[in-house]
Amino acid sequence: MERSAGYLTLLGLLLGLATTLPNKDDWDIYSFHINSTVTSRYATTVITSRVANRMDESKEIEFHVRIPKNAFISKFRMFMDGEVYDGVVKAKEQAVRQYTEAVSRGQSAGIVSSVGRTLEEFKTSVTVAAHKKVTFELTYEELLKRRLGKYELQIHARPMQPVTDFKVDVNINEDAGINFIDIKGGLSTKDLANAITKTETAKQAWIYFYPTVDQQKVCDSCSDNGLNGDLVIFYDVKRDASFGDLVTKDGYFVHHFAPSELPRIPKNVVFVIDQSGSMHGRKMQQTRVALIHILADLAEDDFFGLITFDSEIFHWKRELVQATQKNIDQAKKFAENIQDRGSTDINKAVLEGSRMLNAHPREDSASILILLTDGDPTSGETNPERIQANVRKAIAGKFPLYCLGFGFDVNFEFLEKMSLQNNGLARRIYEDSDANLQLQGFYEEVATPLLTDVTMMYIGGTNLTQTNFSQYYNGSEIVVAGMITDNDIESFVPEVVALSRNSRVTFSNPNATTGTASVDRIQRVWAYLTVKQLMEKELQLSGPEKEKVEKEAMDLSLQYSFVTPLTSMVVTKPPGEDSAVLNKPKEGGSTLPSVPHVGSSGRSHSVASDPGLRHHQYSVSRKAPKLNDDMDMDMDMDGAISMTDMMMPYRPKVLATISSIAATDAPPTQRFLLRPANVSLPLCFDLSATNVKLLHQTSRGLNINGEINPEENGGFRSIVINAQSDLSIEVKTTGVTVKEGQTSTHYSSLTQITAGSVTVIIQDKDIDVSFGDVRLVILGHEISGRKFLWPVFRQLPLDNEAAGVLAANLDYEEKTGAASTIKVKGQAVTVSRSTATDYSVPGPITVDCWLLSVQEAFQRPSSDFYN
Fold it and tell me: Does the domain formed by 17-238+562-613 have CATH 2.60.40?
């Protein structure tokens, strides 16, 4: 459970958590990228790590990735010596059989998954020949879950060495509109805050984290070993309609329902607290602290009950009482004196809590039962199935049961099944210093019921995900996906019926939108939700029904290449190396299959039965034949640089875009965008030129110029960087040419080039150029089959000597009371409203801007920007 003030586990991508753990003396991680795209709350995150073996002998190189527990890995690939090695998702029994066969042949094979607090960890390795490279690429997907009024994308970075080319790129696209966005976490503090760029429009946001090598050593938990911490992105969408957002496309739909302008429903809540001997010490102390805070947050129209239990039951009051200040103060004193003792009779305690709620029927209210325990039932009725049957009969669907399992000794699957059978959920409370905050945070999620008996109806819909919900809480969200029969949108009628505080309410909206999400994305949301809910259903069943649901979930997982608890990914490797098997564990269960493992002693034992491995990563070393000695790039690009899904700048002072070009001999016209902090809209201006001075820094002999493409949509056909007297670097869509003196070398595939004091990194999506304190990214776009370049500075020179159209650093101010007047260096300039297309973001977007002339924008003649 996270802090109530901050964390919503996308439980929301991150975003994603990624870690590469090398021996930094042997390996060079020269590029590490995390790229997360969120469309309509569905996050797809791609982690790419490029590693070089700089040694004179073969080395085993490892790749670690940590991802949210709710995410499904959907793709894994390795690139070596021009070959691609793909992971293949199979039914778990097939993958385990492959693992067993490898062990029987005396080979070592890795089961590479483990359980953490909010994460799962994937690890694999491959042997890389001397002076060779490998690229790892992993993709995972997750539907972000709204909690306490926000979504969360969390990214953890721990590469264990500073990385020259380190990037985190996040693009959020919400048709409903973005209400707010915030960035927190240890990687947003100190000097690292300067490495974060955030750009927003009404419906999109871009967050870019591009720390320099020096910045990667300065966070609270960072050191000379590089980054070690979290980048956490919180956001929410605008909610103008109570019906929510309904997106349809090509026979599929997704409905996000989260009304907020509703009266709060008073609640009846009973807390059932384990005080058995195993709760001794910090567990008990933290429970007391949390309970006291929770009691203080009860509203006066709430009714509550409080019981503790071990082998016996202890009531504060035998019936529910109103949450008056007097009653709350008395209940706090009771909570302060809870002492651990005895064994654990969960059956008796939960049945007593159910009795208290059943004995207190109240119209226009919502009842909730919350159980906190840290152990298995050890007294009274101890058979889990009989306890579950007793509780299900006592509750009879009238209210939800939430089970909080404290620590790892608890039988979490037992609690999870009991919660799901009674319209609730189970949550693990981790034995950390903030356990009391985890408890408080969970309570906040259910503290404000707004609707009960929610029924989501879709006439003309089929293959629907869950449509009935016992309660809807403020700050949460209900998501339903499905198919539209025969894609007949005219006959598709969605409607929501529920009970509010004083009446039965109906929500309807005939105006569904097609939105910007692709049909593939909507299908994957439907598949993701369906698999999740089928696995919850499977947990509650037995016999043939259980097998049927398992098969349905597994087939869907295989169809969409999801690594779920029912499937595994076989990670293929070069000839001579063993495959590894990636499993997704169930919460609280073993991460490893019960198959023989040959240990270092040569004796076999069951990995899953080894308690020392139950909640930890297991890996083994393996050797591969030495690869050939010919130096080769880790990915072939067919002689051209593919540049799609481009990135935003590190610190964008200037963004640029292209206006239409007339088919004449006149110089092409290019429209640039400036984004001053104190102006409501970007500024835009047109510059007619063929060769443009982008940045000139005379003191260090640095000149960067661009040649405009005269065709429609413009862009740059080439960008030339002249550094020092004898070094020239020319970038085109077909590659990079480096001239040092009389020597000229052309590069057209992934590589890193060091020429003098300039470093050029050619990647599959962009080209990075670094020269001292200057960092330029050259992006690429393709429109109607035509490719062109676009330059954006991530880091401008620290001094004020630089000149050029992309080196502007002026003061702009919107004149108060006159939105059509801008002050530039103190001079008032009249502007008009216009639009421009911004090519410095992934996928061009049209933005509104204040149009002025280039002379007015810079208070200098336009000829100063011609080369």
Answer: yes
